[in-house]
Amino acid sequence: MNKPYLLFKMRNSPYWYAQIRLSDGSLSNNKSTGKESKSEAEKVVMEWVVAGAIPKRVSRKEKSEIKTSLDTLSILNQLKTHDFSDSEINQIINILKERNYIKSAIRTETKAARDAMEYLLEFWDYDKSPYIRELHLRGKSFHKKHSNKMTRIIINYWKPIIEGKLLGEITRNDINKIYEVESTQKLAPKSVKSIIHAMTVSMKWAFLHGLTEINCYDGIIKPCEKSKERAILTMEETRALFAAKWKNDAAKLACLIASYTGMRQGEIAALRAQDIGDDRIYIRHSWGKYDGLKSPKNGDEREILIPQQLRNMIIQQLMKNPWKQDLSAYVFFSKKKADRPMDADAWAKYMRQALKSIGYSDPEKICFHSFRHGWCTTTLSEIGDQRICMIGSGHKSDKIFAHYANHIKKESALKTIAETSEKLFAPIFEKLAVEEVEYTIIDDFPENQKLLPCTGESKNKIA
Questions:
Q1: 235-458 is classed CATH 3.40.50.300
Q2: Model's pTM, two decimal places?
Q3: 263-304 pLDDT tens trace
Q4: How many angstroms separate the CA atoms of 77 and 54, rounded?
Q5: CATH domain 111-208 topology
Q6: Phi, psi of 98 (to 5 degrees)
């Protein structure tokens, strides 16, 4: 009968070593008995066999109390040598997860084994992202400007933390490391929130689509976002600003439109001939540096009434367009390309120069968007009904507010806004009075035909 072990000596060692025969017929690794006598060594090995356990290490002075059972050795041996099927591998992983030995495991050649940086850069790539494609299919807007911003955040802030990791390895601890980065600690809470957003949104999408087993986005404490209150001009300062001489008349008109209507910079830049009505502006598009002509924010078109003086100023600006005079002509045209408006970012520069000329203390605190904030503030203080103001501004802060806004008669609200704005801006238009010329814009006139002053019955019509 074969012994359940092999006993032998190793070169350069006075001790006897043993290999125990396991239940599957294989042999354990070499184990020192710690004995120089063969008979004593055999006695030790038989104790191991009877007890069904082998100590991890045996020294001459003392026996280790940490032992590995023969059954465990057999399992470990099989893990090293056996060719497991996919289902068997999954069973092993699931057992280890059920017993809380592991949280997750990344199998080779699976989606979770993808390089994390590669996934994140694709996730925020406007042209390749399945997430952005999914949003568009659902009718939600997502612009290249935001896509580019998120990509820069991934490269600048997350690459040093996760480079070299697999997608399935990213944990909540990795996300929280962003708070330990020195450069992050110097940023405003709003900026830090954007950095975390770039990671948590992409990882949540990966988790929900089975690309990772780790929920690393819940439980992340985001900074309290409390933006600095934006500086706005008083009506007295606004009147002084537009009474001043500007170095650029187009910038002055753009700022006047923003101040009177509360329109966003991109919405004013996107204005075309077809958007100027008899007594109102139709806000149908916005212009983005990366997206070009796109839908307004929140995706909804709106309109706002304007006085005749302001309409005449807009038409005069439109008449200067050297490229074309049809309905697609931009009011604030580019001098370099016919199919795009001028660079709207320059408007704030001319506005600050004008503010400086009237002695305003800190022009840098005023940005183009300050006009929108000022419009909301002054209009709301005059009207007193936020729901009416929301129709003019296009804001949608929450579903409940939007629900109430839908119950207001739009035309009545627009007239209320127009009456308030005309009262507020009457002194400004008195200073900026232009020649009372009215224009007609018609649908299908010959190419390159110019806009002409209205005469007789046809005046003030937009087909």
A1: no
A2: 0.55
A3: 999 999 999 999 999 999 999 999 988 788 888 877 778 899
A4: 14
A5: DNA polymerase; domain 1 (1.10.150)
A6: -60, -35
